[in-house]
Amino acid sequence: xxxxxxxxxxxxxxxxxxxxxxxxxxxxxxxxxxxxxxxxxxxxxxxxxxxxxxxxxxxxxxxxxxxxxxxxxxxxxxxxxxxxxxxxxxxxxxxxxxxxxxxxxxxxxxxxxxxxxxxxxxxxxxxxxxxxxxxxxxxxxxxxxxxxxxxxxxxxxxxxxxxxxxxxxxxxxxxxxxxxxxxxxxxxxxxxxxxxxxxxxxxxxxxxxxxxxxxxxxxxxxxxxxxxxxxxxxxxxxxxxxxxxxxxxxxxxxxxxxxxxxxxxxxxxxxxxxxxxxxxxxxxxxxxxxxxxxxxxxxxxxxxxxxxxxxxxxxxxxxxxxxxxxxxxxxxxxxxxxxxxxxxxxxxxxxxxxxxxxxxxxxxxxxxxxxxxxxxxxxxxxxxxxxxxxxxxxxxxxxxxxxxxxxxxxxxxxxxxxxxxxxxxxxxxxxxxxxxxxxxxxxxxxxxxxxxxxxxxxxxxxxxxxxxxxxxxxxxxxxxxxxxxxxxxxxxxxxxxxxxxxxxxxxxxxxxxxxxxxxxxxxxxxxxxxxxxxxxxxxxxxxxxxxxxxxxxxxxxxxxxxxxxxxxxxxxxxxxxxxx
Length: 580
Fold this sequence. Notes:
- The protein contains 32 helices and three strands.
- The chain is an all-alpha fold.
- Among the domains are: 3-45, no CATH class; 525-580, no CATH class.
- A three-stranded antiparallel beta sheet has the order 1-2-3, with no helix packed on it.
- A hairpin with a 2-residue loop joins strand 1 (18-22) and strand 2.
- Helix 2 (49-61) packs antiparallel against helix 3 (65-78), helix 10 runs antiparallel to helix 11 and helix 15 runs antiparallel to helix 16 (288-300).
C-alpha cells in the first residue's frame, strides 16, 4: 500500500465511530457488528502524519489553502521521507506564488522518488512559470519517460517547445503522441498548429484535411484551422469557403463566424462582413469586442456617423474603456474633425494602455496640418511617459526637420540610437540631417555604417554614391554603388536620377540623359529631377528643352535661386543656339 493510500485509509473502520475526548488523550467508542459497545484506543494525533494529511485535504476541499499547507507541513515533519507529501506541498506553494520554496519541495520529491512522473511534471510546470524553459523541458522529458501514456505530458512538452520556437522538437513530440494514440485527434491538431508556426502550410493543410475526412465533432474546428491557413496565404476565397463549411457543421462556432467576417472584409465584401458580425453579436451579446469590429468596419466604409454612434453606445456601457475611445478618436480624425478627435484622445489618461498611441496619433495628425506647436507638444507628452522608445524620438526628429531645426533633429535621432543603435531608419534620418546641415563627412560615415550592417541596402548605396558624385570623389565607386542600388530597385525613379547625375559628373552625358528620362517618367513632380534634366539637356545644347525643364523645376520650387540663374542664362542665349 502506498503512503498516499495509507493516509487516505487511516480511519476506514468498520465501526460507526464517535470521538470522545479525555483529559489524558483520546479514545474511540463505537458499536461492533453484534451491537455491543467497544472501546478502541485512537491514534496519537500529534504523531500521525495520515491524520494531518486528511485534515489538509479537507481544508483544500473548503478552499482554505493556508490551513491545507500548514497541515501538510505538519504531516511532513512526522514523515520527512514522503516524496508524495513533498510533491503536494510543492504544488500548493506554486499555486500561492512561493516559487523558490516550491522548487525546493519538488526537487526533494524527485530525489526521494526518482520514478515519480507526477513529481517531475510539477517541477516542469514550476519551471515553465519561472521561464526556465530548458529545465522545464528536461523535467517533462523525464516525466514522459516514466509515464509514456500520459497525453497531457505530450501536450505540455510539445506546446512549450513550440512557444520557444523549438518547432522541430515540438513536431517530434506530437508525432510521438500520434504514434502512441493514433485514433485520437488531439495530437493531429497540435501537430497541424506546429506546421503552421513553421510555415509548412502544405503539411498543415494535409493534417486538417485528414481530420475533416474523419468527420465527427472535430471536423468543424479543422475547417476553422484550414481557413486560418488560407487567410495567411491571402487565399481569401478558400478561407471563406472553409469558414462557411465550419459553420454548416457548427452554427454556433464563434471563431468561424468572426474569422469569416474578417476574410469577407479582406475581399471588400463589407455588407456581408457586417451582416456576419451582426449575427455573431446576437449569439454573444455581451461580447463588446464584436461591436468594436462592427464599428471599425463601418469606418472602413466611410460610414463615420454610424461608426461613431456605435462607439458612443459602447462607451455608455464602459466609459473608461480607453481602447474604444482611441478608435473613436481615429474615426473623428478620418472624418476630418481634428478638434473633436483631439478632445476624445485627451480623455485617455496617463497610465491607460492606449495613452502612448493616442499621443502619437495626435502628433501625426497635427504634423499633417502643419501645426508644429501641437505636434511637438503631444510627442513630448509621449516621451515623458515612454522615454526609451526609439520610434518616438524618430518622430520628434522628423518634426524638427520639417522646421529646419536640423541640430535639434540630429540630437533626437542620436537619443533614439542610444536605445536602438542598429535602427537603420534612425541612422538613415540622422545621415540625411547631417547632409542638410552641410556636415557631409558625418553624413557619409553614418550611411557607410548602414551599408556595413546591411550590405544590400539600396537607399544607403544610393545616398553614398550620389554624395560622392556631388563631392567629385571616388567616381568609380559612386557609379558602382548606384548601379547596384538600381538593380535592387529597378523601378525607383530617384535612384535612376542619382545614376544619371553620377554619369553626368563623369562626362557620360548621353547615358545620363537616358536615365534622367526614365526618372522623369517614374517621378513626375520632383524639382531636383527636373533641374538635373535641364542641366543634361543644356550640356547637349538642346536649349529649348532645357528651358522647359528649368521652368518645370521652378514651378515646383519657385525659390530655387540656382535654377533661376540657369534659366536666366538660357534666356540670354542667341536664338541660333537654341536647337533641339
